[in-house]
Amino acid sequence: MGKQESNRSILLGAAFLMATSAIGPGFLTQTTTFTEQLAASFGFVILVSIIIDIGAQMNIWRIIAVSEKRAQDIANDVLPGVGYFLALLIVMGGLAFNIGNVGGAGLGLNVLFGISPELGALLSGIFAIGIFLIKEAGKAMDRFAQIAGFVMIGLTIYVMFTAKPPYGEAVMKTFIPDDISYLAIVTLVGGTVGGYITFAGGHRLIDAGIKGKEAIPQVTKSAVSAIGIASIMRIFLFLAAFGVVAQGFALDPSNPAASVFQIAAGTVGYKIFGIIMWAAAVTSVVGAAYTSVSFIRTFNPFIDKNYQWFIVGFIAISTIVFVSIGQPAKILVLVGSLNGLILPIALGVMLIAAYRKKIVGDYKHPLWMTIFGIIIVITMAAMGIYSLLNGIPQLFK
């Protein structure tokens, strides 16, 4: 494989790693739940969130590439200590969400083979660990993310056609919605580029040596491709759910995504849901573990040298917690709320870094990108604080 082909493979791998990290159990549930609430108008929410996602991700990936450093080191360069705080938020969020992701993988195998979700979670955890025990772990992770991404999108397209959604209405309401849900927009942005997710691909490119000013065109393309892949999945899932909702069917509140697939395509649809749920969950387990550890590996030479074993340990802890005590709901609520603050802090720090010569050298960050980034920081910070204030009271109910 030539250098150009190898680079293309890494760029595609990074895009799929980020996209499949975004497409997890929460992604499936949120998309179907909001479709039931907003019907065709949910298309508008998806459109707005895609624009915000691209703005956030392009800013972050470009600045990581130009500085040739990971986000936590850039943050510490901007203001000592901020990188440690960011890493703490990312690792806490990654671990809590990984418990949910492992649970989702267990549920997927439960649907497919009828085994208990706990056994399914254990087997899925072992599978995810296996990826990082392979000598070329980075390549294995890239390849798995790509295959799983294609499988999920292909199966969702099949179910979408079976559901026969009113396409015309969906297109019209995407641009002229009946109602706008700000909560849905924040939730979608948080679920696509919030927490550790946006850094999954950015850090993968640094690890693979794709960095520096000359790599900016490739990095920008990879960043936009990643949002594109996640958004394609979101759009097809929305259309499948909208087809079911438009026919007057009610979704099962305990598992709205499963009921979309079952109503649209019967038993085959339910099994397809099992495959998608498992693939979505396991790729998110891999992405969360890899990215969380990438946030602490530069703090200590021992962690850096043995980072693959730290990733293995991270997945093992997530799996053991789920199998022994299930999903700790209160922790997930709190961390979900904290997750909303990661994007504005990280993006805000990146935008400051873009204007520090000692970090980016003679690189000139486009003004329109900076303005776009500042708007996203302010909006997401306000919404993040709102979700945190609403999340904490739930813990004391």
UniProtKB/TrEMBL annotation:
Location of this chain's protein in the cell: Membrane
An MF annotation (GO) of this entry: cadmium ion transmembrane transporter activity
GO annotation terms (biological process): iron ion transmembrane transport
Keyword Coiled coil: no
Membrane topology per record: Multi-pass membrane protein
Key word Coiled coil present: no
Chief localisation class: membrane
Keywords of the record: Membrane, Transmembrane, Transmembrane helix
Transmembrane segments: 38-56, 77-99, 111-132, 144-161, 181-202, 223-250, 270-295, 307-325, 331-355, 367-389
Source taxon at top rank: Bacteria
Record GO cellular component, one term: plasma membrane
Protein name: Putative membrane protein YcsG
Native organism: Caldibacillus thermoamylovorans
